[in-house]
UniProtKB/TrEMBL annotation:
SUPFAM superfamilies: NAD(P)-binding Rossmann-fold domains. Residues 2-89 form the Pyrroline-5-carboxylate reductase catalytic N-terminal domain. PANTHER family: DUDULIN-RELATED. Keywords: Oxidoreductase. The keyword Calcium does not apply. This is Dinucleotide-binding enzyme. InterPro entries: NAD(P)-bd_dom_sf (IPR036291), P5C_Rdtase_cat_N (IPR028939), STEAP_metalloreductase (IPR051267).
Length: 219
């Protein structure tokens, strides 16, 4: 399977590394151009390209950019593709987005509105980048770390659940994109090491208009 990655920050690079280790062909991109990614590509062993090239390349495409950048995503190339949305809303970085501040939609619904026809799945957003390569364990490991995901396309979610498992995590289906607020930034499950039962418990505890203190999930 081929994976295209849009964004070469901490999350994008971690996803690229795990994908290569799992046997994927990988192409990574950023907003500054492929010529700025040569050292990253050499370290990971992946290809580099433009955002459009990475989107066209992947059977599955990971979006790992600041949320404010979603309007620049190559919608045409992503039509029909399984797209993994790893993005989180940080107003101090992204600027205030009224529909999110008013809880009128989720971050993934906002992105899906731009990516018409993409098979969007919210996943890999509720884990710190530094935990990607250290917390994954084989299937069946007692108390294996679990991560939530959400989406409106059942088949796409099944593919993403398989990727989560390959990368060392149990997948917990949190429902549709409209319910993905339960594991957005500052919710009880966000970036906390939990097994499947713990994730389910924290998802149930979440309240739409209640956030944890800023940065409390950083360790």
């Amino acid at each position: 399977m081929k994976m295209g990655i849009l964004g070469a920050g901490f999350i994008g690079r971690a996803m690229a590394t795990l994908a290569k280790q799992s046997g994927y062909e990988v192409m990574i991109s950023n907003s500054r151009g492929p010529e700025t990614l040569m050292s990253t590509a050499a370290a990971i062993g992946c290809r580099v390209g433009t955002a459009r090239e990475a989107a066209a390349f992947g059977d599955v495409v990971v979006v790992a950019v600041p949320l404010r950048s979603y309007p620049a995503l190559p919608a045409a190339e992503l039509e029909g593709k399984i797209v993994i949305d790893t993005c989180n809303y940080y107003p101090d970085r992204d600027g205030h987005i009224d529909v999110l501040d008013q809880y009128a939609m989720t971050t993934s619904e906002l992105m899906a509105g731009h990516l018409h026809g993409a098979r969007l799945v919210k996943a890999f957003n509720a884990i710190l980048a530094k935990d990607f390569e250290t917390d994954g364990t084989p299937a069946g490991t007692p108390h294996r770390r679990a991560l939530p995901m959400a989406g409106d396309d059942l088949a796409a979610k099944q593919v993403v659940a398989g990727i989560l498992d390959q990368f060392g995590f149990d997948a917990v289906d949190a429902g549709s994109l409209s319910g993905s607020w339960r594991f957005e930034r500052a919710k009880p499950v966000y970036c906390v090491r939990l097994n499947r039962a713990g994730v389910l418990e924290k998802l149930a505890e979440a309240k739409r208009d209640v956030e944890l203190p800023h940065g409390s999930w950083r360790r």
